[in-house]
Write a structure and sequence with these properties.
heterodimer; A: 467 residues; mainly alpha; 2 domains; two-stranded antiparallel ribbon; 4 strands; B: 277 residues; alpha/beta; Rossmann fold; four-stranded antiparallel β-sheet; globular
C-alpha cells in the first residue's frame, strides 16, 4: 500500500487487463445486439413480415463499445497516476491565464454572433442559426438565471418554475390580443414593451401566491408542491377554454416592434423606414438583441442582489435556516422575495417567448420544460451564472445540434433521426455529470464580499439547501 | 438593586405529557454573567429555546427590560423580532455557522436588518446609493473590529467551515455580538474546547461583560468556566430550579451536590426530606 502511494512509483498500464475488459464488454454488447439490432422484422408491400439482417450495425456498435471501454481503462489509469503524483500545477496556471479574458471574449462573441452568422450563411440561411441556437439558448440562459435565484441561491427546490414562464407568456398573449385592441388600439405597436413589465409583475405575484402555502415545507415536500403548482397552471390553461382557448392555444400574438416601428413589408415598416430590402431576418436579429439585453439585465440584477443584504440572506437561508432566525432574519419574507424575483424573470422570459413565437399553447409549458431548466441550474452548479450559460449551451444547443447531424444517416440508414435520441443523450449526460461533477460544472462558490484576498469556496463546504 | 434585565416568571414548557420546564422563575441581572447549570436533560436548552423564540412557552412570562426601560414580552414576539427588536442573541450547542460562506460574510449576515433598512429594502442598494455604501462600509468595519478582537482577521476570507472547532465557537459568539444584543445567550460555549481555548473564551466573555452593553446568560457543564466568570448561578434539575445564587453559595448547596453526585442509598430519605422533594 505504502509503495503505491509514494509519488515516485506510478503504476504501469496493464494492457492485457484493459484488452480483456474491453473484449468482455464487446462480447456482452454483441450478445445484446444479436436479438435487438442484428435482426429486424419489417412489413413489406404485401403486409408480410420480412426478417432483415443488420449484422454490420451490430458490429459497429460492438466496436464502439470496445473502444469506449478501452479508453475508459486508459482514463482511469491516468487519473490514478495523477492522484499519486498530485495534480501538476502547469495545467491549472494555463487555465488561470485565460480566465481574465474569458468574460470580455464571451461577451464580444455573443454581441456580434448574429452579424457573424449573417455574414457566413446569408440572410436566408442565418435565421436558423440565430433563432434556433442564439435566441433559444438565450431564453434558457435567462430562465436558468431566474431559477438560479430560487434554487441556487436560496436553496428552495422549485420543480414548477415553468408555471411562471406560462404566466408571463399568457399575460402578454391575452393583454396584447384581447385587452389592448379593444381598449387602447393606438398602443398596438407598443404592446410588447408595455406588457413586458406587466408580465414580470404578474409572474412575481404568482410567485408570492405560490410562496405562501409552501413556506413551511422543506426539501422533497416543497419539490412536490411546486411540481403540482406547475401542473395546476397548465391544467387550468387547458380546461378554462373561455379564458385561454384551451389546447388550441392563442395565435396571432403581436410581434415586438422596433420601438414603435413594426417589422413588416408596409411603407412604415422597419425595412422601408431604414431603406433596406424587406427580409424577416431583421426581426430575428432584433429579437436576439432583445433577449440578450433581458438576460444581461437578469445577470446584472442577480449579481447586484448577491452583494446586497437580501442576497446574503438567501445564501444564509440555504446554509442554515435556524441560524438565520436566531439572527433576526425574517425567513418568510426572505423566501418570498426569492420566489417573487425568480418568478419575475421567468415572466419576462415568458413574455418574450410569446412575442417571438406568435403562438402559444399549454403544450409549451409541460413539466419537461421545468425539468430542463432545473437541469441547467444543477449542471451549472452552485448558483454560478457562468455555469448556467455553459449548461444551457450544452443542453439546449447540444439538442439542437442533433438535428444537424445528417451524416449519421449515412451510417445508420435514411430513416435514422438523431433528434429522436435527445432524451437518451440528455439522460446519459445527467448520469455522467452526477458521477464526475456532482456539484455542477462550476463547483466553487464565489464569496460576496472580500476583505483581502478573493478565495473560491469549495463546493464540499456549501450546503445545497433543504427547501 | 436595579431592575433585572430579564425576568422569567413561572415558565412552564410541556411537550405532550412531558414537562420539560416546570414553573421556573429567575432573574438575569444587567451587566452580569448568569450561568444556567444542571445535569443532562434538566431542561436548560428548553429554557434557552423559550427565551430566544424557538419554542412558545406553554405558560409563563418572559419580560425583557431594555436600558431605555422599554419592555418586551418575549413569549409574544415573532421569532425574528426577538433578535431584531428585543435584542436577544444566541449561539447553539452544536455550532450553526454558515459554513459555505466566508468568515466575513457570516458577520455581515448578522447585520442583515440594519443593512436591509439602509439599502431601502434593496432598492437603494440596487441603485448604488451613497448612503447605503456608507452603511455597508460601517458594517464591514464592525465585522473587521470583531474579527480582530477574536483573533480571526487573518482568516476573514476563508469559509467558516474550514476553521478549527475553537475558532468556530468564537466566530459564532462574534456573529451573535454583531447584532448588538442586550442579552447574549450562550449554549455550552466551552464544550469541546481545550484548557487553553477555554481560558481564551473566559477572557472574551468577561471582556464582553466589561463593555457594559451586553449581559450574558450561559449554559455550561464546565465548572471551571462557570465558577471563574459567572456572577450568578441558577441550577436546574428535572425542569425545576433547585438553587439560585452566587457561585460560592451554589457550590455548597446540598441540593446541588445531591443532583450532581447523588447520595448514598441510606441517606436518600433524609436528603429528600431536607430538600423537600
Amino acid at each position: 500500500m505504502t509503495q503505491a502511494n509514494t509519488p515516485s512509483s506510478t503504476e504501469a498500464f496493464d494492457l492485457v487487463k484493459a484488452l480483456k475488459d474491453a473484449g468482455f464488454a464487446g462480447m456482452v454488447t454483441f450478445g445484446l445486439c444479436v436479438p435487438i439490432v442484428a435482426f429486424r422484422a419489417e412489413q413489406d408491400m404485401a403486409n408480410k413480415l420480412v426478417l432483415q439482417q443488420r449484422w454490420w450495425m451490430a458490429l459497429v456498435i460492438t466496436g464502439l463499445v470496445i473502444m469506449a471501454r478501452f479508453l475508459f481503462s486508459l482514463h482511469q489509469h491516468s487519473r490514478r497516476n495523477e492522484h499519486a503524483q498530485q495534480a501538476p500545477a502547469g495545467t491549472l496556471s494555463a487555465l488561470a491565464l485565460i480566465k481574465p479574458y474569458l468574460a470580455p471574449l464571451g461577451f464580444g462573441f455573443i454581441t456580434i454572433y448574429p452579424l457573424m452568422m449573417l455574414a457566413i450563411h446569408g440572410p436566408g440561411g442565418s435565421i436558423k442559426w440565430i433563432d434556433n441556437f442564439g435566441i433559444q439558448i438565450l431564453i434558457y440562459v435567462m430562465l436558468g438565471w431566474g431559477l438560479n435565484i430560487v434554487v441556487g441561491l436560496a436553496g428552495l427546490l422549485d420543480l414548477g418554475y415553468v408555471a411562471f414562464y406560462a404566466v408571463g407568456a399568457y399575460s402578454y398573449a391575452l393583454i396584447a390580443t384581447k385587452v389592448i385592441p379593444e381598449t387602447f388600439p393606438f398602443l398596438g405597436v407598443w404592446a410588447f414593451w408595455i406588457c413586458l413589465p406587466i408580465s414580470g409583475l404578474l409572474a412575481a405575484l404568482w410567485g408570492i401566491l405560490l410562496g405562501f402555502p409552501v413556506l413551511r415545507l422543506r426539501g422533497d415536500y416543497l419539490a412536490i408542491v411546486t411540481l403540482a403548482f406547475g401542473e395546476i397552471i397548465r391544467l387550468v390553461l387547458i380546461n378554462w377554454v373561455d379564458f385561454s382557448n384551451g389546447y388550441a392555444g392563442l395565435s396571432s400574438i403581436p410581434r415586438p416592434s422596433f420601438f414603435g416601428i413594426p417589422f413588416n413589408a408596409s411603407d412604415t415598416g422597419f425595412a422601408a423606414v431604414f431603406n433596406l430590402e424587406f427580409s424577416p431576418i431583421y426581426r430575428t436579429i432584433f429579437l436576439y438583441y432583445v433577449i440578450l439585453v433581458l438576460s444581461l439585465m437578469t445577470a446584472y440584477v442577480t449579481l447586484k442582489l448577491r452583494r446586497l443584504p437580501v442576497g446574503r440572506a438567501w445564501e444564509a437561508l440555504r446554509e442554515d435556516e435556524i441560524a438565520c432566525r436566531s439572527l433576526g432574519i425574517n425567513t418568510t419574507i426572505t423566501k418570498l422575495t426569492a420566489f417573487a424575483i425568480g418568478a419575475m424573470f421567468g415572466g419576462f422570459a415568458g413574455c418574450f417567448f410569446a412575442a417571438r413565437q406568435g403562438f402559444i399553447s399549454p403544450e409549451s409549458f409541460v413539466f419537461l420544460e421545468s425539468a430542463q431548466i432545473l437541469a441547467i441550474v444543477v449542471l451549472g452548479g452552485m448558483g454560478s451564472l457562468f455555469g448556467v450559460v455553459v449548461a444551457s449551451i450544452a443542453l439546449v444547443g447540444g439538442i439542437e445540434i442533433l438535428r444537424e447531424l445528417d451524416f449519421l444517416k449515412e451510417v445508420f440508414g435514411p430513416t435514422f433521426d438523431p433528434s429522436q435520441y435527445r432524451m437518451l443523450v440528455f439522460g446519459v449526460a445527467m448520469v455522467l455529470m452526477m458521477l464526475w461533477k456532482p456539484r455542477g460544472l462550476i463547483s466553487t462558490r464565489d464569496p460576496s464580499v472580500v476583505y483581502k484576498e478573493r478565495k473560491a469556496i469549495s463546493g464540499s463546504m456549501v450546503q445545497e439547501g433543504h427547501g | 438593586m436595579t431592575t433585572p434585565l430579564l425576568k422569567i416568571e413561572h415558565l412552564t414548557m410541556r411537550f405532550g405529557g412531558l414537562v420539560a420546564v416546570n414553573d421556573l422563575s429567575f432573574d438575569v441581572h444587567r451587566g452580569e454573567i448568569t450561568a444556567l447549570i444542571g445535569p443532562n436533560g434538566a431542561g436548560k436548552t428548553t429554557v434557552f429555546n423559550c427565551i430566544t423564540g424557538f419554542y412558545k412557552p406553554t405558560e409563563g412570562r418572559l419580560g425583557l427590560r431594555h436600558p431605555d426601560s422599554k419592555t418586551y414580552l418575549l413569549e409574544r414576539l415573532p421569532d425574528h423580532h426577538i433578535n431584531w427588536k428585543a435584542k436577544v442573541a444566541r449561539t447553539f450547542q452544536n455550532i450553526r455557522l454558515f459554513q459555505g460562506m466566508t468568515v466575513l460574510e457570516n458577520l455581515l449576515v448578522a447585520q442583515h436588518n440594519p443593512l436591509m433598512l439602509a439599502s431601502g429594502y434593496s432598492i437603494l442598494g440596487l441603485l448604488g446609493s451613497k448612503s447605503y455604501l456608507k452603511s455597508e462600509k460601517a458594517a464591514l468595519d464592525k465585522a473587521v473590529a470583531w474579527l480582530e478582537r477574536i483573533n480571526l482577521i487573518d482568516r476573514a476570507d476563508d469559509p467558516a467551515g474550514d476553521l478549527p472547532y475553537g475558532d468556530q465557537r468564537r466566530l459564532e459568539i462574534a456573529r451573535a455580538m454583531c447584532t448588538d444584543p442586550v442579552l447574549l445567550c450562550l449554549d455550552e460555549p466551552a464544550a469541546g474546547l481545550n484548557p487553553r481555548e477555554s481560558l481564551e473564551l473566559n477572557a472574551l466573555l468577561t471582556s464582553i461583560r466589561a463593555d457594559g452593553q451586553t449581559s450574558l446568560l450561559l449554559i455550561e457543564h464546565d465548572m471551571s468556566v462557570v465558577m471563574a466568570i459567572s456572577d450568578h448561578v441558577v441550577v436546574l434539575d428535572y425542569g425545576v430550579k433547585i438553587s439560585d445564587g452566587a457561585p460560592e453559595e451554589v457550590r455548597n448547596d446540598p441540593r446541588v451536590i445531591a443532583a450532581y453526585l447523588g447520595v448514598d442509598d441510606n441517606e436518600v430519605a433524609a436528603v429528600e426530606a431536607e430538600v423537600g422533594l
